[in-house]
Amino acid sequence: MVADRGEIARRVFATCRLVGIETVAVYSDADSDAPHVGEADYAVRLDGGVPAAAYLRGDLIIKAAQRTGANAIHPGNGRLAEDPDFAAAVAEAGMIWVGAPAETLGTLRSKSATKALVAEARVPVLPTYTDPAKVPDFPVLIKPDAGSGGAGMRVVRDATTLAEAVASTRREVGGDVYCEPYVEDVRHIEIPILSDGHGSIVPFGERECSVQRRYQQIIEETPSPAVDPGLREELCRAAIVAVRTIGYVGAGAVEFLLDAEGDFWFLELTPTLQAEHAVTECVSGYDLVRLQLLVAEGGVLPMPGPPPIRGHAIEVRVCAEDPAYAWLPASGTLHRFAVPDVAAEFRPLPQPGLRLDAGVEDGSMVGVHPDPTLAKLIAWAPTRQEAARMLASALTRTQLHGVATNRDLLVRVLRHHSFRSGDLDTNFLDRRPEVFAPLLSAVDAVRISCLAAALAGAAGRRATAAVLASLPSGWRNVPSGSQTAVYDGPAGPVEVGYRMNRFGELSGWWVRAVDPEELDLAGLGQAPVLDDHPRTVVVVASDERVVLDVNGIRLTFNVHRVGEVSYVDSPEGSVALRELSRFPLPAPEAAEGSLIAPLPGAVRRVLVVPGQRVRAGELLLTLEAMKLEHPVHAPSAGVVASLPVHPGAEVNTGELLAVLDPE
Predict the structure, then answer these.
(1) Local structure of 143: helix, strand or coil
(2) Is the N-terminal amide bond of 225 cis, ω within 30° of 0?
(3) Which stretches does DSSP call E strand in 146-200?
(4) In 580-626, where do the E strands start and end?
(5) CB 421: neighbour CB atoms within 10 A?
(6) Can you tell me the distance from the alpha carbon of 402 to that of 574, in angstroms, rounded to the nearest whole number?
(7) How far is CA 120 from CA 93, 117, 132, 145, 336, in A?
(8) Range with the lowest mean pLDDT among 9-23, 79-93, 569-583, 589-603?
(9) Which residues does 628 contact at the CB level (< 8 Å), separation at least 6?
(10) Which residues contact 142 (CB under 8 A, 6 or more apart)?
(11) Residue 228 Ramachandran class (φ > 0 left, ψ -120 to 50 alpha, else beta)
(12) What pTM was computed for the model?
């Protein structure tokens, strides 16, 4: 049984099928149609209320395993993989635990205690301060003593705000925290390791994990462009000492900070099969899940030492979130998920190419409770430059419809000169705002995509026309009005207009911005053809494919329409265009001072009460979605007039959170 969901469950199932092991999936109500459920031999529903809570109920998971006759539990790579109580309960139930021993997980539960233990073995560590009053220098990084994934971490640059920041972080994470020096301009390097119960500890090179958002990795690669053979040997030696000191058995990763001078410091030992394990599988040739199962069964690792590194592999995490809006989580139906030229899924590649590990497919529902990662796309090539180029090209041509993602940001990072040159650190994204721009940003590219959407829409209507279906769309035997459509585009409402001649050929077109106040659209169809638009010839115009000759260059646009939204994919990039009604219904207006939920999620903390006076910018409450906490601040000073939500309440996008009477 895999006590997890999505991509990691599918990954483990893929190896189990290869080695002849039957599989059991668990699922919440929200995931009843998820791909991992259908791929298992058996599946058991978990009744845990909120979908995220269901997968954390170790008692329910063990009962489900016993009902199906499972004799082993793989915890995936979520919270249960690091839970010593769950590991002990699995062993007490007489089942094999595919992970680190419960005693070891108990040691690793405290990061500060783990650092102290490793420091005694002379592995470099940064100083740790549990008492804010004893912090000697700044800046410092506040970190939770338990947990992972970057939650609760924050930088403090002066002593005046440290005590308050520590107290706030303690409330946020619900446990102890500590401080350590915040080292600027560092890389995040980890050494993946496998250790069996017979004394063998094998490091698998290093992984570069420096491109992060909110202390969470989104691009990983191996080998690191900053690590030479000598430094690699030092890092691997330190990782082996840490693993042996802690008594670790199983798959995991020893994480380090690395500065420009080659100095490094131990961060933590993560006791899971890391989300980025695929890049290691590519360059080593080993199936790490298979080795995990081998170790869990009491076997001996088959390699005498670190395997040689073959070529270069880069992985990106495609996440349901909007980087341009503070990484706001996205939810909804994933209408299309199509990645081109994939050579393998969920298993090591036989030769250089693309690998896809995805937890979703066409029609998948994306909620806000699980991790935002939809899929991991991996490129393996002889060189780093080839891998980056291959990955950026595949992402550009990937069709992702229905949910906002970080795809454009990933492409811009992969093509950025700093990334290509290997100039990386954990603040890479903060220092390069240009990577947050959408791929489809050129004015002409947006205009032509709008035209393609309008032509595809007209072709779709002609295909179902009951009268004069053989005539071209917009055909007139005497020139008259133009064909028009209005879309809500990337920069607001735009009108698309075009005219056809008597031969059904495009004789002119325009795209112009529309004032939202004028969306009754009266008379907009009479706009003149603008001279600054390129000469365009329609080669093909069907409801799903439009080919245009623009100034002698042919471009193909794939158009996928779902309801009122047209998803347009082309070599220029991708854009979603929602067609606006000519006669929109009036929408109800919110009361003045209303604070509306910017995303669906669960109310985690409420810090005010009705009648309380608040300052501008004061934190009122927080929403939790996709393992991240999102603050809601007062836009101005005032008094809390209404507070209809409470901690634990589930809210949808647009739902009222509070009403503030401004001063």
Answers:
(1) strand
(2) no
(3) 154-156, 177-181, 187-195
(4) 594-596, 601-606, 613-614, 619-625
(5) 9
(6) 12
(7) 36, 5, 23, 19, 53
(8) 589-603
(9) 151, 214, 327, 329, 372
(10) 152, 153, 154, 155, 156, 165, 166, 169, 177, 178, 179
(11) beta
(12) 0.91
